[in-house]
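Meet today's protein:

…
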Amino acid sequence: MSHTPHRSREPRCVSGRATESVSFVPERTTQYPVPYGVRFVCWRDSVVFFIAITILCGSSLDAQEKLAVSDNSRLKIINETLLFDDDFERRESQEVIDEPGNGWSTNSDKRAGGNKQVDLVDGVLHVDRHQTADHSVSIVHPANYKDCRVELKFQLDDQADDIGIDFADMQCKEVHAGHICKVFFRADGVEMQDLKSGRMNKAFRDAVKLGTATDEQKADVKNFRTKFDYPIKLQEWHTAIVTIIGDTISVQLDGEDIGSFASSGMDHPQKDLIRFSASRQVRLDDVRMFAINTPKTGVNSSDAPVKHLFVAKLLWRRMESVNVTPEQVSKFNQLSGALRTRIDKIRAEAGITQDTIKRRDEVYSELKKTPLKGDELYRELQKRGGFTDPQRDAFRETQEHYATFKSAVLNLLTKEQRARLPKPGKRK
């Protein structure tokens, strides 16, 4: 909508209407919580070298390194159900207390002495924390879902402003106030949090209140949040899309992929409301929420394999035919997540970007026609691509990690399963 003064018209909030739609959603690169608070930003990698897939399916580690990041460009079809849709095009009957309407409620009675903190003005929801409030403003809407997609427009006016989107289950006794996971938009970037596993976990909160929380517990909690530095312009409208599928939460802002974060708490089996919060003030408009009905697979969705590295996906395809157990799937996830973290670390330290990877692949497409191997291959790769010594070494080191990963995964299988495992490049 155009954010200029205009006449009010009938609201189009359709809470509960089951409207089916099909969307094509690109899978995105993901961050995983890792020990000791170490996290690395991983942006969506480019689509490269599909012609080398047959090579990747074989034993060549060079080829596996080359295509290891391509899986994020694959598209998957998901089915969505519209939960509610609100453009805030309506008028309040008074100007004394909150009256957002259309199924929304606020915490102003409990936290701000009943003072008005939410106001509908010219088709925009204005949120301003009252000076007497002892908590951030919270605007709540009921919604039943597990996986979801939320679209919204927002405006921050000051460097200290923020808007949070909180996904909650009020029936969950493991957490404080139903908090499962959350996304914050601030002037300096986007933060994603697994609250169920992290700071809102009831056992941790109780320990903090009693003063018994250990340094190790406090450090561990930090692993369940991550931040993407991304400047958000003030006093301008921005369009955001937040998606939760399984254990992964992803964010787009103004059409750009900001990043994703994977953590077990996000995969909570059922959520029953959504909250929008503001620690100071924010402007909100055009909110739409969809429940995502993810297709069933051969295993429970919570046990679905991590597929963010192409080499992991290819190996998983071979494993699917030998009836892997849920425990094996879980361990596969752990190994794949750890691999993703190691590769992110290597690339971050060597200054490897999307453009670096693309250039490497272009050079490699020529080198794979030559008999060069080992050190000679990497020296020529560096020479033709203009890579630094750390980048050259990083390309080689990632191959070693792929070999270790493949060996560890195969060791998960029984002797019988390994005997039935399809050969690389073939599927039963």
